[in-house]
Amino acid sequence: DADRNVNEFCAALESWRDHGVLAFTINLQGGGAIYDEEVYDAYDNNAYTPAGDLKPEYMARVEKILARADELGMVVILGMFYNAHVKKLDGEPAIHRAAQNTMAWLAESGYQNVLIEIANEIEWVVHGTGITLFEPHRVGEIIAPLREKWPQFLYSTSQGGFHEEKNIGFPTPELIDVLDFLMPHGN
Q: CA-CA distance, 105 to 131, in Å (whole number)?
């Protein structure tokens, strides 16, 4: 029950804040607690239609989380895209449309307690989907038009855990140049 989950999440935030948690991440395409392909590919936790339009019921739940976090003085790191769920969008035009729609919605909401994470662990998004738009040298193609239209927000993306032998997880100078803040993953 998505509404019950959000209500319980919002109810827990005050305790988290009281214990020193001042920021947390949510993603408009959920996450992947179970990395079994049969399970992972079967569920759809997605704020977007295949065309990149926002689902109103989903965004109403996101708004509830943003409001509660704002009330408590907490920051939300709002992710847009997550691994296999990106495949549920109709290609790069839908990805750009989803990003534009997200930022228009966010700007209209008036919340300022939000940092933007374009995609979670971009190497794994590329690996799992084949969509090269999320490669470190291309992710700026998503960020640049958003920053131009909505400069009041800070933009980043995260990379997968550091794997020296695979040469992944290390932000390149080119990637660093397009990000407003870094989100290294230590997993």
A: 25
Phi, psi of 74 (to 5 degrees): -105, 155
Contact (Cβ atoms closer than 8 angstroms) between residue 171 and residue 179: yes
What are the structure tokens assigned to 149, written together?
């239209």
Give 5's Cβ-side CA count (13 Å radius): 8
β partners of residue 76: 24, 114
Residue in the block written with tokens 């999440």: 9
Q: Tens digits of per-residue pLDDT, 43-100? A: 778 999 999 999 999 999 999 999 999 999 999 999 999 987 898 999 999 999 999 9
110 sits in the region (left: phi over 0; alpha: psi -120 to 50; else beta) called left
Q: In which order are the strands placed within the sheet that holds 155-156?
A: 23-27, 75-82, 114-120, 155-156
